[in-house]
Design goal:
This protein is an alpha+beta fold. It folds into 2 domains: 156 residues, Jelly Rolls; 108 residues, Arc Repressor Mutant, subunit A, CATH 1.10.10. The strands form 2 sheets. A 5-stranded mixed sheet has the order 1-3-8-5-6, with no helix packed on it. A 5-stranded antiparallel sheet has the order 2-9-4-7-10, covered by helices on one side. A hairpin with a 2-residue loop joins strand 5 and strand 6.
Amino acid sequence: MKNSTHAYKEETLSIEPGNSLKVFINYLQKTGPMVEPHWHDFYEILYIVDGRCAQAINGVSQDMGNGDIVVIEPGDTHATYSLSESGCMIIVIQFFAAALNFDSTPVKPSKYLSAFLNGADLKSGYLLVPYPHEQEMKRLTSKINEEFTLADTGYQLVVKGLIFQFLGYLNRSGQSTLTDQQNDTLFDKVMSACTYIEQNYQHRLTLAGTAAHLGYSPEHLSRLFKRVTGKTFKSYVDFVKIAEARRLLQNENLTIGEIADLLGYDNIGSFSRAFSRICHVPPSRLHHFQQQRIGRQAAAVAYGSMQTPSANPS
């Protein structure tokens, strides 16, 4: 989460030409932290070349292995920990979307629709295995690293083109969970509803209000959503709200009641029921775990300060 107390902001890139794209290999020859908790204003693609690691994104840990790809969005707090005694190697691709002349968010047409349709456990970040076009996306990732490393004439244009290809396949992967008979027009209509939900999750969203905003009748939007996704409008609203709740639970200054209010729930009870249904644990347990983790981090920092010898005056 962007304003996490215990994460630092990484500012290795800028929007200026020539400094808006970076590709490198992160390698650690043992188990342990590879990157401490941090966040940044640019996108990041991680491709696990060898070994295993845990990628903690917005407080949720995901184990990753050879061939896994994860996409980190701007503002997401994340950290990487090697789980392999023999080491872990990761290709890291960082870029500003605006510098590549994207008109809008390049990663997916909807932030949560793919996970929602796949019935995936609610996790932050985009873990992309298994996924369609897997081999092609792996090839593109390796080629991006190769071009950036060799830095031959015109390599920056080539790298940008390869990133465009990668993101194109990524968008296809996000749509691939729809049934084959759905046409583009129906998909676009549902995407409009999903985008509206994702941009207004902090409000009390109703089927009637969303339908009126999009110019549909409630009955039409309900049938359309069910036809394209196979699930209900309300289930997607709850999914998005709880995804955002996972982020807010990282803030030690917010109570569960305040988070429920920020997400537009009428009371703590309805929020807790939705959270438990989607995450399989009550929000109080996750909130308690987060408080314990923050306490351990603070104690470790304090202990480290005590162990640091004072400089002797000259």
